[in-house]
């Protein structure tokens, strides 16, 4: 019988020692809270597919953003749910469009206490639910969509968004939006590119959250879940076009892509723990099948360990509270 000379358990002996040698730590400032705001409601509405998450009124949105700031959360990411949609998503570019109105309200409420960010994509605003406009054949028209993204970017920047989250997966969107922003003097408006965004079933609950009108799928513009090299290529292309931050989305099923992008990137790399990831943990916890808070923390630590500098998560404020 020989006994081990190398004893890896030594560093795990006490909670204090484990804390001292921990390789990965969460911090509230690197969490971003996604928020939904619905036009024409005076009270927030609950979402059946995302227990605990609301479609906000402007008032409850302001309060919730202020609470996140109070908890030390790094940013909020706003999504609009308009009352009326059309083929070109025109409400996205109008000053009185719900997302732009809400952005102004939140920016006025929180000032510099938290970074105000907006989703820059047409899917919430189009009556067909696609992330871009359609050509005569019904296909998503990349270049015609870029023209609208430029207008949308300017509307969001004027409303007070500091970080634009480009989530439409059109080719050339980062360069097009950067050019539009710089042309109007918005040199300091940050572009966060959803670079490696996969065509994922885990966005399911989000479709209810934004009342999505989509009937088909997004496979002609979002990435094929099996493609790892292509995810990295998307991120590198966005960095070359001028992205200030790149993102991988969803998070948990794409940690290899996240690690690849983190290794190659010279800009911050974020990850989005999406609606389906949220709802899976909440549903399992509601059944008593997993320890909710431990599962949430472990999921976030795993995403950070894989290489995320910041994480969009629907639990941002709650987790920030635990970390205080
Ligand atoms: C597109 C967008 C989506 C999400 C964020 N931005 C939906 C999609 O691409 O289908 C999903 C977020 C989530 O599931 O939490 N505007």
From TrEMBL:
Annotated catalytic residues: 197, 249
CC annotations in GO: cytosol
Biological or metabolic pathway of the protein: Porphyrin-containing compound metabolism; protoporphyrin-IX biosynthesis; coproporphyrinogen-III from 5-aminolevulinate: step 1/4
Coiled coil ranges: none
Superkingdom to which the source organism belongs: Bacteria
Positions of 5-aminolevulinate 1 binding: 207, 218
Keyword annotations: Heme biosynthesis, Lyase, Magnesium, Metal-binding, Porphyrin biosynthesis
Subunit text: Homooctamer.
EC number: 4.2.1.24
Entry's family note: Belongs to the ALAD family.
Pfam families noted in UniProt: ALAD
UniProt cross-references to PANTHER family, sorted A to Z: DELTA-AMINOLEVULINIC ACID DEHYDRATASE
Binding sites annotated in the UniProt record for 5-aminolevulinate 2: 275, 314
Reactions that this protein is recorded to catalyse: 2 5-aminolevulinate = porphobilinogen + 2 H2O + H(+)
Gene3D superfamilies: Aldolase class I (3.20.20.70)
UniProt enzyme class: lyase
NCBIfam families found in the cross-reference section: PRK09283.1 (NF006762)
Organism: Labedella phragmitis
Stated name of the protein: Delta-aminolevulinic acid dehydratase
Binding site for Mg(2+): 234
Function: Catalyzes an early step in the biosynthesis of tetrapyrroles. Binds two molecules of 5-aminolevulinate per subunit, each at a distinct site, and catalyzes their condensation to form porphobilinogen.
GO MF term list: porphobilinogen synthase activity; zinc ion binding
Biological process terms in GO annotation: protoporphyrinogen IX biosynthetic process
């Amino acid at each position: 019988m020989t006994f081990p000379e190398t004893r890896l358990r030594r560093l795990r002996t006490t909670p204090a020692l484990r804390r001292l040698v921990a390789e990965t730590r969460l911090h509230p400032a690197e969490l971003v809270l996604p928020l939904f705001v619905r036009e024409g409601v005076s009270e927030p509405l609950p979402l059946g597919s995302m227990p605990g998450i609301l479609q906000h009124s402007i008032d409850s949105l302001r309060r919730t953003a202020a609470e996140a700031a109070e908890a030390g959360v790094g940013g909020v990411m706003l999504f609009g749910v308009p009352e009326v949609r059309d083929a070109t998503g025109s409400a996205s570019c109008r000053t009185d469009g719900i997302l732009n109105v809400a952005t102004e309200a939140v920016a006025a409420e929180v000032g510099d206490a938290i970074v105000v960010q907006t989703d820059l994509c047409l899917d919430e605003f189009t009556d067909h639910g696609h992330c871009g406009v359609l050509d005569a054949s019904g296909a998503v028209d990349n270049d015609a969509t870029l023209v609208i993204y430029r207008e949308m970017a300017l509307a969001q920047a004027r409303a007070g968004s500091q970080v634009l989250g480009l989530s439409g997966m059109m080719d050339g969107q980062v360069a097009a939006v950067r050019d539009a922003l710089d042309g109007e003097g918005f040199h300091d408006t940050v572009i966060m590119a959803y670079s490696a965004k996969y065509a994922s079933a885990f966005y399911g609950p989000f479709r209810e959250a934004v009342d999505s009108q989509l009937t088909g799928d997004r496979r002609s513009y979002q990435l094929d879940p099996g493609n790892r090299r292509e995810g990295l290529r998307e991120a590198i292309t966005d960095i070359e076009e001028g992205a200030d931050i790149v993102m991988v989305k969803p998070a948990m099923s794409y940690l290899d892509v996240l690690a690849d992008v983190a290794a190659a990137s010279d800009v911050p790399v974020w990850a989005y723990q999406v609606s389906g990831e949220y709802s899976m943990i909440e549903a399992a916890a509601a059944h008593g099948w997993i320890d909710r808070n431990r599962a949430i923390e472990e999921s976030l630590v795993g995403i950070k360990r894989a290489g995320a500098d910041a994480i969009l998560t629907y639990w941002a404020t709650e987790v920030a509270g635990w970390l205080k």
